[in-house]
Write a structure and sequence with these properties.
A three-stranded antiparallel β-sheet has the order 3-4-5, with no helix packed on it. The protein has one domain (30-117): SH3 type barrels (Roll), CATH 2.30.30. The chain has 117 residues and is α+β, with helices and mostly antiparallel strands. The protein contains one helix and five strands.
């Protein structure tokens, strides 16, 4: 009987370790620093932000590429999840700079077209 239990214990331990690994939830999608996307949103270009940083990814830890002001029009490309909420990839028509801006900083809440990641 002891031999049978001794043989079963390592197998049960392996299952106990494997089960939590297999049911772990995936990380939330976001645009890592350096991610660019093509223009998927064909909406008009009269979108603005008031001094919002255009970043290289959907996180405040990503590099600032430019600043979008309320006098500049933005061309929305698409949105994805990121740090603190959703982010839209934009092209600033005045400067030509592209980057990610958190949606709550945009005049109308950002793009309605999902980037797919």
């Amino acid at each position: 009987m002891k031999r049978r239990i001794a043989a079963v214990v390592p197998a049960l331990a392996a299952v106990a370790i494997a089960v939590p690994l297999s049911i772990a939830t995936p990380a939330a999608a976001s645009a890592s620093c350096g991610t660019t996307v093509s223009d998927k949103d064909s909406s008009s270009w009269n979108k603005t932000a008031n001094g919002a940083n255009e970043r290289s990814g959907s996180s405040t830890g990503c590099t600032i590429k430019g600043i979008a002001y309320n006098t500049q029009s933005l061309d929305y490309h698409c949105w994805t999840s990121g740090e603190g909420g959703t982010w839209t990839f934009v092209r600033n028509d005045a400067t030509g700079v592209t980057g990610w801006i958190r949606d709550d900083l945009l005049s109308d809440g950002g793009s309605y077209v999902y980037c797919g990641f």
